[in-house]
Amino acid sequence: MSADHDHTPLAAFARRVLVAIALAALAFLLWRAVDILFLVLGGVVAAVLLRACAEPVARRTPLSDRQAVVATAIVIVLVLVLVGWLVGAQLSAQISDLLDRLPQAWQGLQDRLGVGALGEWLRGQAGAAGSGTGGVLASLVGYATTLGGALANLILVLIGGVFFAIRPDLYREGLVKLVPGEAARARVADTLDTCGRALRAWLLGQLVSMAIVGALTWLGLWLIGVPAAFALALLASLAEFVPMVGPVAATVPALLLALTQGWGTALWTLALYLAVQQAESNLITPLVQREAVELPPALTLFGVVAFGVVFGPLGLVLAVPALVVAYVAVKKLWVRDTLGEPTPVPGEDDARS
Are the C-beta atoms of 70 and 57 separated by less than 8 Å? Predict the structure, then answer.
């Protein structure tokens, strides 16, 4: 009896240690697999877009939901191929011209600001670090590997998005079944549905904003006479997917390229980008977000920066969709259900309408 009594505290301590080790191992595996989790989120975003495009097709044609999703995916791919074929040559030439002009524009900016010596020193340090054929070859291999990885991730996201869009109920029910208790399962299921509606509203609103920003930027750059206007406008449109940080990053190459045409052109270009961003912030976004999701600006800014610092480029691109899901889940599960505080939740109005 005394021996069993002596071993009981030791056994309990051993169980606690094993549980702690298991939790630490699980946290480590999740951290290591964070890129996969972001790819899953990217697939969910692609699935939301596919479902949004496929639902009108299913309503207006005899196609089933799955057939409409597959048909929509095929049409989207064909449209992208057609657009690439029609404007690919022009876009390729403009991107090539943009890449050729940027070093000259950077050198011109250094000369005007009187920091040429600093630029020479930086170039010398870079040349010393990567001198020789081996350094150039290593750089080319690194760029090719990065590009290949990005393309592979994009293909994986698109394929996963098609699978998610064809059978969303299968993955939703599988996730809900992991939660113990019928009441908790009902809450999680309702929260997932609400997150899906909010994510869809945000994505559609974001696509509208991106299209308008791209069109306004192209028209303004064309009128000003900045080279590679179409490529710069496409860059501005894509950068709009990352709020606040993306538009600032897209302004830099436009200003550098405008500097090759003179300070007057550069000032007009800066004024154009400021005007487009003011229109986007004060006119386009408020109109679009009446039917979309309005995240607090400070939450968006620091969330995007934090995701970019911690998770890299993939986290930067998918930061806002992750914030939308987290924002809805926290308001619904914690603020309303746990704390009992009344609060509006994005995505619920769509369910009632």
Answer: no
Token pair for residue 347? 């995505």
The residue behind tokens 């599960």 is 333
- Cβ neighbours, 10 Å, residue 128: 9
What the block records as the tokens of 78 is 């064909």
Instruction: Give the helix, strand, coil percentages of the chain, each rounded to 5.
Output: 85, 0, 15
Whether residue 316 contacts residue 307, with contact meaning beta carbons closer than 8 Å, is answered with yes
pLDDT at residue 54, as a whole number: 87
The residue type at 328: V
Q: Tens of pLDDT along 332-343?
A: 888 888 888 888
* Distance in angstroms (rounded) separating the CA atoms of residues 295 and 130: 44
Q: What is the spatial distance between Cα 115 and Cα 112, in angstroms, rounded to a whole number? A: 8
User: Residue 218: what pLDDT?
Assistant: 92
Q: Report the percent of the chain where pLDDT is more than 70.
A: 75
Q: How far is CA 250 from CA 16, 39, 172, 235, 238, in A?
A: 52, 24, 37, 6, 9
Compute the distance between CA of residue 353 and CA of residue 346 in angstroms, rounded to an integer.
Answer: 13
What integer is the mean pLDDT of 128-145?
Answer: 50
Q: What is the pLDDT of residues 232-277, one digit of tens each?
A: 888 888 888 887 778 888 888 888 778 777 788 889 999 999 999 8
Tell the burial category of 307 from Cβ atoms under 10 Å away from its Cβ (0-12, 13-18, 19+).
Answer: buried
The set of residues, in sequence order, having a beta carbon less than 8 Å from that of 133 and lying 6+ positions away, is none
Map tokens 């991107």 to a residue. 95
What angle, 0 to 180 degrees and rounded to 10, lies between the N-to-C axes of helices 319-329 and 34-60?
80
pTM above 0.90, yes or no: no
- Amino acid in position 204: L
3-state secondary structure of 53: helix
